[in-house]
Amino acid sequence: MSDKPLGKQTHEDAVSNPKTEEMAKNRDDGYGKYLTSNQGLRVNDDQNSLKGGERGPSLLEDFLFREKMTHFDHERIPERVVHARGVAAHGYFEAYGNATHLTKAHFLQPGVVTPVFTRFSTVAGSRGASDLARDVRGFAVKFYTQEGVYDLVGNNMPVFFIQDSIKFPDFIHAVKPEPHNEIPQGASAHDTFYDFISANPEATHMLLWAMSDRALPRSLRMMEGFGVHTFRFVNAEGKWRFVKFHWKPKLGTHSVLWDEAQQISGKDQDFHRRDLWANIEMGAYPEWELGVQVVEEEDEHKFDFDLLDATKLIPEELVPVQLIGKMVLNRNVDNYFAETEQVAFCLSHIVPGIDFSNDPLLQGRLFSYLDTQLKRLGGPNFHEIPINRSLAPVHNNQRDGHMRQTINKGQVAYGPNLLNDQYPKQAPQSEGGFSSVYERVEGPKIRRRSKSFIDFYSQARLFWNSQSEPEKAHIVKALRFELSHVQTPWIRERTLAQLTQVDHDLASRVAEGLGMDVPSTEGMQLNYGAIGADDKAADFQSAPAKDNVGSSPHLSLAADSPINQDKGSVKTRQIAILATDGADVAAISELMKTFMEQGAQTAIVATHLGTLKGKGGEEILINWTFQSTSSALFDAVYVAAGAQSVRKLKQDFDAVRFVNEAFRHCKPLAASAEGVELLQAAAYPGAEGILDAEGVVTSDSTDVAELAEEFATAIKQHRFFSRELEAVPA
Ligand code: HDD
Positions of the region Disordered (predicted)? Predict the structure, then answer.
């Protein structure tokens, strides 16, 4: 019996890095091996329990049954209290080497390549919730640097709902399913969330982000990431500067519509997870560039917001983002539980060259993450779990605890010691010893929100002003949807009161959909959120939003936004080819070849599964039927030529609906020859002008070369919101 796997290629053969190699001793695929107990005993019968007689009672002696069943009974660990649903992948980070003057962090020095493990998540839903919930996405990166583990635990939005972490449990209790009936799952559209929002105007800015297209990413590969807080970079001379971290996706930042998101949740609630997995498996590795906004220490107070306030961003027009490295995710996990579930991110995992700021949200997070891992992973040795293990050597006097793996030798477990020559020894900074930034701190011991945090509406207005018209319409529809699910009328009214502080047009458009008037805020206490029992409420009421906030084009996802400039690409885009028996198979094959060469992915959707028989007798494999998929799962739709095929498609309501929905979701559409007739058939209310609309490419000819080029240009634009009509469901 050989212990060698029989010719199976594992992930580590495919893409290797130092962390992959370091974890090798913990991997096992059981292939070509005998079944054993956990003690290595070979098992002779794993199908039958030990019984007294063939039809008799089971025996307590059955240690194999008991071991197997006990292990099974203990398989689950508590899911994360937030960010429970996630997906992760391995990869590497490569420093561009242009940040040396800003930070001494080794992983940011020229030529250094560092293994990473990145987990994306939704916040409110439980582990089994849908990927397409309207929600913030977590974006957590673990760098296995040569100086120890560094965790950058961010989100896909640059601000947060609250300013002080003591409010985090309240905020999460408000957004999570309501405690009496555990409804709704993974959704913010309910009373307790908006009760909180309506009493905490500091959340207004983030509310608009959560209602915007950012909350519905097209793909985890197509979203930005943000460290949110202001951190510090410290260089080799000890000079420090404030920094904000950004991740910029190479494929641009794109979203789906809410109607699509709801359909995707029904057709494939693993849509994001599957998309990330599949693209990594086929070698279409997602990439992001890491950027920083840098603010000199002496410029701390030059902004009209506080750098320590996590509900504010620094507009990129004020402080441009400098790109300092790139991350590539190139390997899926071998085991979801061992890696994605057991990975433990902590803000306190830091390296020399980076430091914290006094942001009170960040300061509380420094406590919460370590604390939560102790509960979730069962004890203080979670750093020894393979996915969490540092690549830099670990030596200290911490000992014992549940499931300890390290076998610490010797009689000494304390410092200072003379018995062991002071080892393990404190490291001077010149040898990589971490030292906090030297800073004078003084002030009264006080529980109070800084007055510099009390402008709750100006940046919300900046965000609103920065959205294109279609994006504004999406925010209005999202708020109408959400507030329609709120049962308590005065919570709707108070939320409208918060919105009217941001922009009257926003509030009145939402109010119209709710059949309400924008309430007068005269005498209304808008803020309960930053105030202790003995504080004067009036001292903490935000001034109205400033008139002259202007706009920040970087905050929009429109095709012409600076964040999407030069990023239009058909790479990894999913194109549905609608055809059935009698279609022009030669033209379909040519179109597929053209798009696959450009890195797009195509799938044939037909009236039946199996093989499609072309008009000349050629055959081609069908991927999906109209019953098993939906246009919501694709980026673009092409209707193939072929009179017989198109006649059948026109008679199939699901095929017609497929096209109609793709049109109303503003997606690129194309059709050749008779295929155009299916577009016409789909022009029922809401899509009458389908053939003349932007992003619809048709050709009389069956020759697809020219059409493919024009279609590709349309796909690069992602969506054609100019066609958006009131008929599109909210
Ligand atoms: Fe948090 C998880 C991001 C505020 C407490 N958070 C968690 C994860 C991400 C974030 C991405 C999932 C990590 C993973 O994939 O395992 N959290 C944020 C961001 C915040 C933020 C960007 C604001 C800027 N979080 C925040 C506050 C607190 C927490 C203010 C508490 C004081 N977060 C937690 C936690 C979690 C967590 C309870 C749950 C599971 C975990 O930590 O590992 O500790």
Answer: 1-54, 543-563
Taking a C-beta distance cutoff of 8 angstroms, is the pair 141, 118 a contact? yes
Spatial contact of 172 and 187, defined as CB atoms under 8 Å apart: no
The interface pTM score, or ipTM, of the predicted complex is 0.99
- Counting from 1 in the atom list of ligand 1, the atom nearest the Cα of 153 is 11
402 is annotated as an active-site residue = no
Structure tokens at 347: 């803000």
Q: What is the pLDDT of residue 722?
A: 87
pLDDT of residue 14: 63
Rounded Cα distance between 230 and 228, Å, is 7
pLDDT score, position 164 = 98
The structural domains of the chain, ordered by start, are 86-161+213-388 (2.40.180.10), 574-723 (3.40.50.880)
Nearest protein Cα to ligand 1, atom 31: 365
Distances (CA, A) of 2 to 45, 234, 470, 581: 21, 54, 63, 50
**Residue 366, Cβ neighbours under 10 Å: how many?**
14
- Kindly report the average pLDDT of the chain as a whole number: 95
Ligand 1: distance of its center to the CA of 612 in Å? 49
Ligand 1 atom with the shortest distance to the CA of 140: 11
Task: Enter the tokens of residue 409.
Answer: 């030798």
**Which amino acid makes up residue 52?**
G
How far apart CA 646 and CA 580 sit, in angstroms, is 8
Whether 675 and 640 have beta carbons less than 8 Å apart is answered as: yes
DSSP code string of 272-296: HHHHHHHHHHTT---EEEEEEEEEE
Residue 365 among known ligand-binding residues: yes
- Is-contact 110 95, C-beta < 8 A? yes
Residue 729 pLDDT more than 50? no
Summarised one tens digit per residue, pLDDT across range 486-533 is 999 999 999 999 999 999 999 999 999 999 999 999 989 999 998 999
Q: Quick check: 568 and 480 in contact, CB under 8 A? A: no
Q: E strand or H helix at 483, and its extent? A: helix 469-484
Q: Is the pLDDT of residue 456 over 80?
A: yes
Question: Considering only CA atoms, which residue is closest to atom 11 of ligand 1?
Answer: 138
Residues 80, 142: Cα–Cα separation, whole Å: 17
97, 99, 103, 109 alpha-carbon torsion, rounded to 10°: 0
**For the purposes of burial, counting CB atoms within 10 Å of the CB of 407, is it exposed (0-12), middle (13-18) or buried (19 or more)?**
exposed
674 has pLDDT over 90: yes
pLDDT digits 0-9 by tens, 687-710: 788 999 999 999 999 899 999 999
Task: Kindly report, residue by residue over 236-260, the tens digit of the pLDDT.
Answer: 999 999 999 999 999 999 999 999 9
pLDDT at 196: 98
